[in-house]
Amino acid sequence: MWGGGFPASVTVVVTFLLVIIDVKASGEYCHGWHDSQGAWKEGFQCPEKIDADDSIICCGKCELRYCCASTDARLDQGSCDNDQQAQEPGTESKDNKDSGAVQEGPGSDHAVLTGIKFGLDRILDGGSPQRR
């Protein structure tokens, strides 16, 4: 009844679950900022490569951000006013853009999950392009 597609289906489901677990395990994003010298520092996802796995919180001060595990040291990034990168002449600021538009690239969570769902549908339907 299941035929040869059953092991592939199990593999896809297990992979899907691992992706979900990995997404939930990722930490906070430390937004880009201007340091005390005025230099722009790019934002990053916690934990970074050099951090411990439990360093999932953006910590520090508005002028110096890092990943840590302590909720007591968590940086309230909403209170920082040095996280706006200077606009180049002739470019549109993000405030002027349509704020209702959702930006989704090929690596977005929605695109990845849609691709996984499409793959699961194809495997569970026996590889046929249409549902039976």
From TrEMBL:
It is found in: Membrane. Residues 74-111 are annotated as: Disordered. The keyword Cell inner membrane does not apply. InterPro entries: Shisa (IPR026910), Shisa_N (IPR053891). Residues 79-90 have a biased composition (Polar residues). The keyword Kinase does not apply. Pfam families: Shisa_N. Keywords: Membrane, Transmembrane, Transmembrane helix. Signal peptide: none annotated. One of its GO terms (biological process) is regulation of short-term neuronal synaptic plasticity. GO terms for cellular component: AMPA glutamate receptor complex; dendritic spine membrane; postsynaptic density; postsynaptic membrane. Residues 27-82 form the Shisa N-terminal domain. The chain crosses the membrane at residues 6-23. This is Shisa N-terminal domain-containing protein. It comes from Pleuronectes platessa (European plaice).
